[in-house]
Amino acid sequence: MSNFDTIVIGAGMSGLTSARMLSDAGQRVVVLEGRDRVGGRMHTDRSAGFPVDLGASWVHGISGSALWDLVQALDIPTSEYTVGSFQVGGRPIENFDGEGRPMTLAATQQWISDVEEADRLLQEEIAHSHPGDTYLDVTERALDRSGMTPERIDDIREFFRHRVEEQCGAWIGDLDAHGLDEDAIDGDEVIFLRGYDEIPRRIGAGLDIRLNTAVTRVNRGSEGVVVHAGGETYAADRVVVTVPLGVLQSGAIEFSPALPDAVAGPISRLGMGVFNKIFVQFSERFWSEDSYVLRALGEAGEHWHSWYDVSVVSGVPTLLTFAAGPFGRQMQSLSDEEVVDNALGALRLLYGDAVGTPRAHWVTRWGADEFSNGSYSHLAVGSTHHDHDALAGPVNDVLHFAGEATWGDEPATVGAALYSGHRAAERILGTPVDLGEFAAGITARELKEGR
Question: pTM value?
Fold first, then answer.
């Protein structure tokens, strides 16, 4: 049996952050990872000669962001790509009406005004909501008060549904009324020109990481913990569990004794959404050079409603669309070709024969991934914002949890993973860890090793 100071389960952003900080402080640390790679839900495919981020893509808001500070300290190239919280205006968006026709400037301005008014009413309804109210409940109350025509209300209803799907990977009726309270973006957003998983790969370089080593059992006692993984056992004073919420909910890891309700309760109450990506690459651009987003309202955008131009990464015309919530789970049973054909049918409703035959595509299935069982967490009906932070524990100062689902201020983000890993390391060490010194240590180590 191998003995360590701390065992970290999961080599994603939170796990590697904790492991690096603990290791830098002189601890004996091992990272156990079930996948054959590091990064977790930060997964970049470089097989085509350029990066395709199949998992996380954006830094959502760089103002006051320690994640952005880390990106800059590591000198990682990015491109500004601000999409906001599924916004309707403020950026060049090609809008199409429910029949797939381009919207006039006047119709677009009316649409933006309608959403702004509906959102104002929605905030009032959320503020006066009751425990057990869903996001569907409060949106319907807001729309009932709007006084708009049925056609305009239908478009906004679809917009609200898609916003929940895109932000949470969930059906609007499964999200708590307060489920988007933290959905605010401060400052610009960026995407990565060399791939997002450069960050965890550089943080984890040189750590003792055991890949293809899935943890099945964690025993804790007065002497610390014993972790069973890959047919081996590992002993340590403590463990940091950073697997996604979906894995905790699946029971793939047995905890003995059972987790106390202070942690088990949040695991059962919080939701794990599904948000899948479909990249489609074309030989020629058929949409405006200036457009960030192509968006279909109403019936035309029932499933495939938004297309994001991410051509800057590869230099080849590329659109990114999403399948999330119930539709995201449904499409996971289809082949790549069936998914792409279905999506292109919706795109051709907008652009007709101008939509050419794709030269390449990428399709994700995060809900079917045994090491994630979903894309990211959300506030399901019956849960509260407190549940996110309560999930972090610790349990008897031996069992710590980290990951985006454990950070209440901005769950479902890479920033949350970074901050939660930082918090776990500080709790274990009993002393603050400066994030600026953390970044400087990574670059200094790379210079020393000639990387």
Answer: 0.95
